[in-house]
Design a protein that fits this description.
Layout: H1 5-17, E1 26-27, H2 29-36, H3 40-53, E2 56-59, E3 63-66, H4 71-95, H5 98-117, H6 120-136, H7 141-157, E4 158-160, H8 166-182, H9 185-199, E5 203-205
Antiparallel strand pairs: 1-3, 2-3, 4-5
Helix pairs in contact: 1-3, 1-7, 2-3, 4-6, 4-7, 4-8, 4-9, 5-6, 5-8, 8-9
């Protein structure tokens, strides 16, 4: 069975974001094929995709390497998110479905409950799902793809602290959903912009750690090509 290049791409990207492969580290097709238990063909395709996304660079005579973004490039990621997330929320107010609203409201309820209980790790995952669903509700595949790529890159470049008052943060999420539900695009945009601005202080730039790549094998799930 041929393993989809998308599955291999997701696995490599996840390992780059989590720091398994250090910035500037060399990535060979043979090394990656062995690590994920696949042939070199999907690895080659995956590396091309990751290069187009900015996670990998190819240098003449050196081959593929993990990219090394500058601090300015990392700061630009947050600026781009601050522009695109409010746009996505405004579009969601115009194009969301009842299914989107049901998921968003469910996530807000769970987030508020976990916030009151102080379950920080759950909140991190729930926050990611909330913003992913909000982007999907925009009805724009191109915008959703850009926001997804930004989230991956921000997770790669930044450590994100939990807010001091998580209940208030999830109240902001709730207000955004209320505006989306009412079809109030401008309010959804404004609330999302304010939420993004407040979250900036929670981001700490990660410092690259120099070390060897872990050698344990990571076999790609061949049953699905989904991210």
């Amino acid at each position: 069975m041929r393993v989809p290049a998308q599955s291999v791409c997701t696995a490599i990207r996840d390992d780059i974001v989590s720091g398994v492969f250090e910035r500037g580290g060399r990535l060979t097709e043979e090394q990656l094929a062995r690590r994920y238990g696949v042939s070199r063909v999907p690895v080659r395709e995956a590396l091309r995709t990751l290069e187009s996304e900015g996670f990998v660079v190819t240098r003449r005579h050196a081959g593929a390497q993990v990219a090394e973004p500058t601090e300015q490039e990392a700061a630009d990621l947050l600026d781009m998110r601050a522009l695109l997330e409010p746009l996505g929320a405004a579009r969601a107010a115009q194009r969301r479905t009842e299914a989107h609203l049901k998921v968003l409201r469910g996530l807000v309820r769970l987030g508020q409950e976990r916030a009151r209980r102080g379950q920080g790790e759950d909140l991190r995952s729930l926050g990611g799902w909330f913003h992913e669903t909000l982007a999907q509700a925009s009805g724009s595949p191109a915008l959703t793809a850009l926001l997804t790529q930004l989230r991956h890159k921000i997770a790669w470049m930044y450590a994100v602290d939990q807010p001091t008052h998580p209940v208030e943060a999830w109240s902001e999420h709730g207000a955004i959903v209320d505006a989306v539900a009412r079809g109030d695009a401008e309010r959804a945009r404004a609330l999302t912009a304010l939420h993004a601005e407040r979250s900036l202080t929670l981001h700490r730039l990660k410092r690259p750690e120099r070390g060897r790549v872990r050698v344990s094998q990571h076999v790609v799930n061949t049953a699905s090509g989904q991210n």
